[in-house]
Design a protein that fits this description.
It comes from Aplysia californica (California sea hare). This is Glutamate receptor subunit protein GluR5. The chain folds into six domains: 8-147 and 294-381, Rossmann fold (3-Layer(aba) Sandwich), CATH 3.40.50.2300; 153-281 and 404-428, Response regulator (Rossmann fold); 450-558, D-Maltodextrin-Binding Protein, domain 2, CATH 3.40.190.10; 575-677, Helix Hairpins (Orthogonal Bundle), CATH 1.10.287; 689-794 and 823-837, 3-Layer(aba) Sandwich (D-Maltodextrin-Binding Protein, domain 2); 846-902. By secondary structure, the protein is α/β, with parallel strands linked by helices. An eight-stranded mixed sheet has the order 7-6-8-9-10-16-17-18, covered by helices on one side. The chain contains 27 helices and 35 strands. Helix 2 runs parallel beside helix 10, helix 10 crosses helix 11 and helix 15 (582-605) packs antiparallel against helix 17.
Length: 903
């Protein structure tokens, strides 16, 4: 939406033009449309407030400004003030505007002139949109008529039934109210709802004391139920002012106000004494669309835009804006369906009908209806969108459909509060007959709609979105921001039904006390009364609790350590040895040698290990030679076993103990090996505050201002006192003036600088590019971010309750997950993990392959040496034998060789 306060100088001429046009229209009654602008005729009641016309003019001006240069449909408004009860005045102005040339008519009407306006509209096919009389029109075809205001007589009936009233007095002040009375009575009778209804018309609302006393005197029932159905907000204001003066605002009185502007009325005198007041509200000020419009509406100059410049939006003004958007949507749809649909309408700056006459002439004979009137009317009834007054949709009779009204109550126990909704299709959405107010919410002062929420621009709590929406419209108001704090404020708004505006601090500080006793930042905004809430990364401290109130923490945090993410440790050739330390490997080797020697010695002394050596029966040999003993121990260590098995009891005890030892060692090694080979580890030189204090190579620092500095200044813990002593006197200085400066210093220090900051910010930065920082170690303390309010604020308890509910139902956790992880830029490696699982690569097990190759080479070399040695020894043995013995032995084949080998 266009933002006038930012482009005031550019729009001053435009606003002046519309003001001049407005004054001119009063004198002449009409104006010729400019070529290219869609002309709209308007008729306004001369006795009514000018807010409806101002809203329509403002909507046209913003529409034209956004779509200048041929980017869309623009409008030109012909406007007249008339006596809405005079048929002659209404038809004169209507015909004058139609003769000038208009596409659609928007205007007020009354019971006296409605039939006349409807007849002219039907005769000349002129679509007529009115914000009046919708509550009294029966469901019947009204050619060319479109009713902007929703029907609410059925809402009154449903609320009466929901409150279980069995008697009521219906008070009205004009003929429209009388028709609504008839509708209420007929429906209750048709549904056979047992109720007694009394009727009273008040002729002079400004002086109704006698009428009210007579009403009070005639009915002395203990419980008095009264429906007030008046013609205007001024009438309601006058009567509500007189009711307490005659004593009808005490316990036992219950009122239903038949208005769609309940929140525009002053009901402060009905909040005491036990009286209950119910009413309806069409414009839901908690909706973002309404907030955005109000932000601009209250900035307008009332001298140029009568009725504007307030933080309340009356139903008539909202209807004017919505109906302009309805017209634009209908015409846009027509042009989209047939691009040249209006091609022959404009010629030489004038609008022609049927290519014959300028405009639509009332005195033409025969009558020439508006050539596009029927098509425009059908397009108007087909629009479907959400506007300031809720869902905009029309039924076949031209009346609003699928809309809802907020039900508002005022009373001693509730204050002014919303208790439910009424929907045109489903009726009361709260099925409780007593319509109790949810006790969660305290009394709210709805005369001060906008709550100022002070905050600070710090990612991810609050960030600027940009300049324009996706559709090209400018970002204004709260729509300019996004982040965790914005989402939290929206949750509070939704659950407490309040309006708010975000106001980031300009000094960029959270809140600290200065020498003169004043406060800066968000705390300063609360103390000075410039803000109602503070939502952001605001740490709860004792010093701040002295000047403001805090809710329970919405986020648990602590001071944490940020350091440069170290490079991942590359796997070495012998990484398979890393599961055990060097001392453990040495111990295993010693145990292996010891077991081998022990079983060798035990076998030598045990007769069970002796075995006769055939063919020499007088010779014995031992299976567990020194080599066999080492082989037995090696086989068990490698879980492969051997052909040898101890026969002696002592040998078997040694074997069993060794096997148990091997079982534990191999299981431990296998478990550790899986972790060491599949997890890449990073070496962190600093893991805690104690590590920082014990070293001198790495410097560390904090923000110059804020809760982190206060923590170190006031801490009595020895470690933290030493850290503060270092940081406060270090040269060059290690404390930084901004968060960005501290993070930049970490990223460019080569691992020689550590930054101490709140854990939530630490985690967020670690998830942002260039993803080269990491949070290490536990938090140094336990703190929390809280929502702050001024001392004695009536918002504290309700906001505190909402905060607890959001934490219990997991909403706060989901919000943090969204802004910290899902919107992160570092993928699955979130930056706060010290390790990450990966698949095995050749580098992880390269040493095992080298060991295998080395074993093969050694085995081949040993085999060659062994073969050469056997051959040499055999030749020496053969040369010493007698040739006869040699021949004899040779005749026995290889016996000698075998004998030698066995010996």
């Amino acid at each position: 939406m266009f933002k006038p306060r930012r482009l005031w100088s550019q729009l001053w001429g435009l606003q002046g033009m519309y003001l001049c046009f407005f004054l001119h229209s009063q004198a002449t009654g009409s104006s010729y449309p400019n070529h290219g602008h869609i002309p709209i005729g308007t008729l306004f009641n001369m006795d009514a407030e000018p807010v409806s016309r101002s809203a329509l003019m403002y909507a046209i001006s913003t529409n034209n400004e956004l779509r200048k240069g041929g980017k869309g449909i623009t409008f030109n408004m012909l406007s007249d003030d008339v006596d809405i009860d005079s048929n002659f005045a209404v038809t004169s102005k209507l015909c004058a505007q139609m003769s000038s040339g208009i596409f659609v008519m928007y205007g007020s009407t009354s019971q006296s002139t409605f039939k006349t306006l409807q007849a002219y509209s039907a005769k000349f096919n002129m679509p007529f949109i009115t914000p009046d009389l919708s509550g009294t029109i029966h469901k019947e075809h009204q050619p060319q008529m479109l009713f902007a205001k929703p029907v609410y007589a059925d809402a009154i009936v449903d609320l009466v039934k929901g409150l279980n009233w069995r008697r009521l007095d219906y008070v009205y002040d004009n003929s429209e109210g009388l028709l609504r009375v008839q509708h209420v009575y007929d429906r209750l009778k048709r549904e056979q709802y047992g109720i007694e209804i009394g009727f009273r018309r008040i002729e002079q609302v400004e002086s109704a004391h006698e009428d009210l006393r007579r009403l009070d005197y005639l009915d002395r029932e203990k419980m008095r139920n009264i429906v007030l159905d008046l013609s205007s907000l001024n009438a309601y204001a006058a009567l509500l002012r007189q009711i307490p003066e005659v004593g009808m605002n005490r316990h036992g009185y219950n009122y239903i106000l038949g208005t769609l502007d309940m929140l525009s009325l002053d009901v402060s005198r009905f909040l005491h004494g036990g009286v209950k007041v119910y009413g309806f509200q069409l414009v839901d000020v908690s909706r973002r669309q309404v907030q955005t419009f109000l932000e601009e509406w209250q900035e307008l100059e009332p001298g140029i835009w009568p009725g504007a410049g307030t933080n309340l939006l009356q139903t008539d003004a909202a209807l004017s804006v919505d109906m302009l958007h309805t017209i634009r949507a209908a015409l846009t749809a027509m042009i989209k369906e047939q691009r040249d649909v209006f091609h022959y309408v404009f010629r030489r700056g004038k609008m022609y009908n049927m290519n014959k006459t300028i405009g639509i002439q009332c005195n033409s004979n025969p009558p020439l209806p508006w050539m596009h009137g029927e098509q425009i009317y059908r397009a108007l009834k087909q629009v479907d969108f959400d506007g300031l007054t809720g869902h905009i949709q029309f039924d076949e009779f031209g009346q609003r459909a699928n809309y809802s009204l907020d039900i508002i109550t005022a009373g001693l126990d509730t204050g002014l509060a919303k208790i439910g909704k009424w929907h045109s299709r489903y009726g009361l959405l709260d099925n409780d007959q007593d319509l109790p107010v949810d006790p969660i919410y305290p009394q709210q002062n709805y005369t001060e709609w906008r709550k100022v929420v002070t905050t600070i621009l710090e990612p991810p709590f609050l960030m600027l979105r940009g300049n324009v929406e996706e559709d090209g419209s400018p970002l204004i108001g709260n729509g300019r921001y996004e982040g965790y704090a914005k989402d939290l404020a929206m949750e509070i708004e939704k659950r407490l039904d309040i309006d708010y505006i975000l106001d980031p601090v300009t000094d960029g500080e959270y809140g600290r006390e200065v020498e003169n006793g004043s406060w800066t930042g968000m705390i300063g905004q609360l103390v000075s009364g410039k803000a109602d809430l503070a939502i952001g990364p605001l740490t709860i401290t004792a010093a701040r609790e002295r000047v403001v109130d805090f809710t329970k923490p919405f986020m648990d945090i602590g001071i944490s350590i940020m350091t440069l993410k170290p490079e991942r440790q590359k796997a070495g050739l012998f990484s398979f040895m890393e599961p055990f330390s060097l001392s453990l490997w040495v111990s295993i080797v010693i145990a292996y040698v010891t077991i081998s020697l022990t079983i060798f010695i035990v076998s030598r002394f045990s007769p069970y290990e002796m075995k006769e050596h055939a063919p020499y029966l007088d010779h014995f040999r031992y299976n567990f030679t020194l080599c066999n003993s080492f082989w037995f121990a090696m086989g068990a260590l490698m879980l492969q076993g051997s052909d040898l098995c101890p026969r002696s009891i002592a040998g078997r005890i040694i074997g069993g103990v060794w096997w148990f030892f091997v079982l534990i060692i191999i299981s431990s090694y296998t478990a550790n090996l899986a972790a060491f080979l599949t997890v890449e580890r990073m070496l962190q030189p600093v893991q805690s505050a104690d590590d920082l204090v014990k070293q001198a190579e790495i410097s560390y620092g904090i923000l110059e201002t804020g809760a982190t500095r206060v923590f170190f200044e006031e801490s009595n813990v020895t470690t933290y006192k030493m850290m503060w002593s270092y940081m406060s006197s270090a040269s060059p200085p290690v404390m930084v003036s901004s968060l960005q400066q501290g993070v930049h210093r970490v990223q460019n220090s080569g691992g020689k600088y550590v930054f101490l900051l709140e854990s939530s910010t630490n985690e967020y930065i670690n998830n942002r590019l260039p993803c080269n920082t990491v949070k290490v170690g536990p938090n140094l303390n336990l703190e929390g971010f809280g929502i702050a309010t001024p001392h004695g604020s009536d918002l504290k308890e309700s906001v505190n309750y909402v905060t607890l509910k959001l934490k219990e139902d997991g909403t706060l956790h989901k919000m943090k997950q969204t802004w910290w992880e899902e919107k992160g830029e570092c993928g699955v490696d979130t930056g706060n993990k010290e390790s990450k699982k990966r698949s095995l690569s050749l580098n992880n097990v390269a040493g095992v392959f080298l060991l295998l190759i080395a074993g093969l080479v050694v085995a081949i070399g040993t085999g060659l040496i062994e073969a050469h040695y056997i051959k040499t020894q055999y030749l020496k043995y053969v040369s010493t034998l007698d040739s006869r013995c040699l021949q004899h032995e040779y005749s026995n084949g290889n016996g000698i060789l075998n004998k030698y080998i066995q010996s």
